[in-house]
Known about the structure:
This protein is of the alpha+beta class. The chain has helices spanning about 15, 30-40, 60-70, 70-75, 80-85, 95-105, 125-130, 135-160, 185-190; strands at about 25, 45-50, 55-60, 110-115, 120-125, 160-165, 175-180, 180-185. It folds into 2 domains: about 15-135, CBS-domain, CATH 3.10.580.10; about 160-190. The chain contains 9 helices and 8 strands. Strand 4 and strand 5 (about 120-125) form a beta hairpin.
Amino acid sequence: MRLLRRNPEIGIKVGDIMTRNFISAKPDIFLSDAIKLMAKNRVGSLILTEKDILKGILTERDIIWALSKKSIKELKDIQAIDICTRKITTIRPSADIYHAMVLMRKFKVRRLPVVLNKRIIGYLTEKDVLRIQPELFEIARQGYNILEQEEKFKRKKQRKQFSEGICEECGNYNLLYAQDGKLMCEDCIEEM
């Protein structure tokens, strides 16, 4: 069975649905002030910028991580830039919303800063996508599964049958393939 790659673009651009009025602060904001700002505006993340250049994103997860490592007294002198996420996946406003959702899934993020000429101009969240058209999540998931199936198909073609016998992983008698130094059946390899 050959899976065909189809053009998954939806036709809605990131710039059309992104949040333009996102909450931001300077990177040197103290963590306690950042938490208050996030609570006041009821947001789960804070964009850290300097002259409209993205420096980091402070998320609820970052704050929880800091709380698990330090006492509340120790957090008093910590700046947001010290614990924020600095390696950030961004997207252009001209990108199709489908590609944004694939990036979110690939990098396991719920937010994407929208950048144009190195300047942050917006912020795309899963909520933005849901607000416009909830069905987009299903479309993106289906397209992503097609690409994933193509990868499985390629790996399967590369495997060479070794012999028949007992699978070293599950103990069942089957056709065996060499995988990671073991002789395993196709089912066990697929579960990896």
